[in-house]
Specification:
434 residues, alpha+beta, Creatine Amidinohydrolase, Chain A, domain 1, 2 domains, six-stranded mixed β-sheet, three-stranded antiparallel β-sheet, 19% strand, binds glycine, binds manganese (II) ion
């Protein structure tokens, strides 16, 4: 059993920040994720809820973190699976109630077997009950006859700015993922299978005691134009690019990198034109990661560069104002080729909580020191598309470049800077370790 990644005081601080803002005579329930069946009696590997990881670092299944506020004071209880030799022979040794009460940052631990009885006592006299629905069917059932509110919105804001200890783990995840991409670029050759690149990247994650933070995307040629491509089952021919969007997590903290390179080591002129454009947009997006700037600054910066470049390359035949869209709405025709947001917050979830996903009405948070964001512009010219005219020269090209960026008082710090992205660096690296 591995220990907790943070000191007790780090967890207690987080609990205090969240709980101080909740009303007196309230109770907060944070169930972990449910187990997910893969087939018959085989489960997917269990991954704890980011909320329970954040508040107390509990990684076993069937846990529920509870905090009860009364007369301004808090008591925290962690419900856990009790020790049970018969189950442990099959599934592994549990921390158990005693272990949880001694080694975890909570006032008490209790057995999940007693959940119903204990919850009924805990909610007595409470005016507010906060919970996360849909994770624990048993808890949902117990609370089904009382009024509850969503707990997430009271925690999300606190997760946005990362502590020094969190940043340290995120740097580790960024470094492992950067090195995995370097290894993949070095090992690439014309005719390699997408699944083989996936194996190199994920093998490096595993070798470093890490795991993917989202299913790796390895798309060769036209497959690179599918934003969440996941089959990874095609071979990649000479002349094609491969787009690899793969990140790992360390103690739950994610990295998220995309690099795109030619499998034969040489960009064609057309690929080079699009690559240079995406890279300029990405650098402009990173430069826009300044403390105090509105969330949309990054997206505006990347969009202006991409729209101007699409016009210059003759892909769009309009003015920059028209390309960007009516009343500067950033929904103009450049979006035919750059159809996702410029980035998202990064943390315990790869698309971390705290707002800022482009495409919805959320204006997003103001950028603050300690936030970690991704910057990931791309251009996609799927030859399979029937909704837009794709110039023959660029048909089948999909390019995205994505880095993880820490906002600091003195500007952006790229956590994934170790991973090359300049054309000459990439060309020199492809296939260099075969
Ligand atoms: N890997 C998903 C994303 O880049 O947002
Ligand atoms: Mn990504
Ligand atoms: Mn991303």
């Amino acid at each position: 059993m591995a220990g907790l990644p943070f000191t007790d005081s780090e967890y207690l601080n987080r609990q205090k920040n969240v709980l101080d803002e909740l009303p007196s005579e309230s109770v907060l329930f944070i169930p972990t994720n449910p187990r997910a069946v893969r087939s018959n009696d085989v489960s997917y590997p269990f991954r704890a809820s980011s909320y329970i990881l954040y508040l107390c670092g509990w990684t076993e299944p069937d846990g529920i973190f509870v905090a009860r506020k009364s007369s301004g004071n808090w008591k925290t209880i962690l419900f856990v699976q009790p020790r049970d030799t018969k189950s442990e022979i099959w599934e592994g040794i549990r921390v158990g109630v005693e272990g949880a009460s001694e080694g975890w940052p909570v006032d008490e631990a209790a057995s999940i077997v007693d959940l119903e009885k204990e919850v009924r006592i805990l909610i007595q006299g409470c005016t507010d009950i906060f919970t996360i629905e849909g994770s624990s069917p048993e808890l949902d059932m117990i609370l089904s006859d009382v009024d509850t509110s969503d707990a997430k919105s009271h925690i999300d804001g606190h997760r946005i700015v990362k502590s020094e200890m969190e940043i340290e783990l995120m740097m580790k995840a960024a470094t492992i993922a950067s090195n995995a991409h370097i290894l993949a670029i070095e090992s690439t050759y014309a005719g390699i299978g997408e699944w083989q690149i996936q194996a190199i990247v994920e093998g490096h994650f595993a070798h470093n005691k890490s795991q993917w933070s989202y299913p790796s995307i390895v798309g060769g040629g036209d497959n690179a134009t599918i934003l969440h491509y996941k089959e990874n089952d095609c071979t990649i021919e000479s002349g094609d690019l491969v787009l690899v969007d793969a990140g790992c997590e360390v103690e739950g903290y994610a990295s998220d990198i995309t690099r795109t390179w030619p499998v034969n080591g040489q960009f064609t002129d057309a690929q080079r034109e699009i690559y240079e454009l995406v890279l300029s947009a990405e650098l402009a997006g990173i430069e826009a990661c300044q403390p105090g700037s509105p969330w949309l600054s990054m997206h505006r910066a990347t969009s202006m560069v991409l729209a101007a470049g699409l016009i210059e390359l003759g892909i769009l035949d309009c003015s920059i104002e028209e390309a960007i869209g009516e009343e500067n709405d950033f929904n103009g025709p450049y979006r035919n080729f750059f159809m996702h947001g410029t980035g998202h917050l990064l943390g315990l979830d790869v698309h971390d909580v705290g707002g800022g996903r482009q495409g919805d009405d959320d204006p997003g948070p103001i950028l603050r020191p300690g936030m970690v964001v991704t910057v990931e512009p791309g251009l996609y010219f799927g030859s399979w598309r029937t909704d837009v005219t794709i110039p023959e020269r660029y048909s089948g090209i999909g390019i995205r470049i994505e880095d993880d960026v820490l906002i600091t008082d003195s500007g952006p710090v790229v956590l994934t800077a170790n991973c090359p992205k300049k054309i000459d660096e990439i060309e020199a690296l492809v296939g260099s370790n075969r």
